[in-house]
Design brief:
Keywords: Hydrolase. With 154 residues, this protein is of the alpha/beta class. It has helices at residues 23-34, 47-56, 87-99, 119-128; strands at 5-8, 38-41, 62-65, 70-73, 79-82, 103-108, 111-114, 132-134, 148-152. It has four helices and nine strands.
Length: 154
């Protein structure tokens, strides 16, 4: 069977424990691409947190973000596939989480939205290399459909 495409996750797969692409991975990816195999990134991360790694690998193809909810070209930024959570559904989930005081992150328009600037929000933003927007109660009344909601109950 001929390999035509490699789609790699990032954390714990493409990236090492220091959140870097190892020299070995770079060489293997370059060999694969040079032999005609398409290489892309497929991850739960935000598009903007993938782009620096795609640039490092000189990828000029679509990247898969938010666990498949968004496919966007690495270079032109053209959106090729866009399937956010329906706004009505997202608002119901946000309300459910608010009533139970669950921690929640919403990813809207490639922006990380949080209720408050908690230690976890700060840690995650640093880990992903992005900034967050502290929304307060406005988080529970977002106006645009999110690509992803991350909820922690404990």
């Amino acid at each position: 069977m001929e390999v035509k495409l490699i789609a790699s996750d990032m954390d714990g797969t493409l990236l090492n424990d220091e959140r870097l692409i190892s020299k070995e991975n770079k060489k293997s990816i370059r060999r694969a691409v040079d032999s005609g195999i398409i290489f892309t990134i497929a991850t739960g991360r935000m598009f903007k947190s993938i782009v620096p790694f795609a640039e490092e690998l000189e990828l000029d193809i679509p990247l898969i973000a938010y666990n498949g909810a968004l496919v966007q070209d690495a270079v032109t930024k053209e959106v090729l596939y866009d399937a956010p959570v329906e706004l009505e559904t997202a608002l119901a989930i946000l309300d459910y989480c608010r009533e139970r005081n669950y921690y929640i992150q919403a990813y809207v328009n490639d922006t990380l939205l949080v209720h408050e600037a908690s230690d976890f929000a700060k840690m995650y933003a640093e880990f992903a290399g992005v900034e967050f927007v502290e929304m307060g109660k406005d988080l529970f009344a977002i106006k645009r459909a999110p690509h992803k909601l991350l909820i922690m109950t404990g």
